Predict the 3D structure of the following.
Amino acid sequence: MLACLMALAVGWQGAAMADGWDDLLPKVPVPTAIPASTPDSAPASSPVGFSSRLVLRGWDGASYQYVQLGNYVSGGRKPEPILWRVLYTTDNRALLLSEYILATRPFDSSRSIWDGSRIKEWLNGTFLRNAFSAKEDYDALVDDWELGRVFLLSREEMANESYGFSRKESSPDSQRQARGTSNAIFEGLWGADTGYSSYFTRTAKGRTSVYQIRSDGCFGEARINRDNVGTRPAIWIFLDKVSFSSGDGTMESPYR
């Protein structure tokens, strides 16, 4: 009996398909092949490194790489994208220094110590919220218990040859020189006739002064309460938390 029923069913299905009734039959999806997931499986036309696995490099003895991350605005002016110079990379992190002086603020009113200073509080408060309002940018920042998420480079770092700087503090160094953005100039940044300005480091020089980088790239000393010395931020970022879609890493066309 069962064999008869099966034969009838097969015969009915064959007749239906022969008469064009196949639309009445249930459709069974055909599985498709799933490509193997490997680090090298990206199409050849995809820009190399434009993902969370972007490989950045620091100073290579001849040049830097550059990235664009965040925006800064002050006084109701137009936001300006922040251009960062890649100083150094290690494991999954990269040390970035703003190519330009972004603001001008007193270091503090009474102390030359970075921890607890007004400039550290401002950089990790007002500036941080302003410059990294996008969650993905904020999440890419390394939060160091001593430095914070945004900080100033130290005297030692500004003389580190691995970062591309001269170790001679009294010699002019073009790699240490920096110009101010229109926002910084609007805030009252002092500038030399050359167009370069001075900016604070986070290293104390005395009770009421810190080391600064002068407009010629030499080291100098600045009183902590000066309000026309530049603020040139630095950050550490997690490389696996940033993603860029364009640019070639040059100053003219930074990764962005």
Observations:
- The radius of gyration is 29 Å.
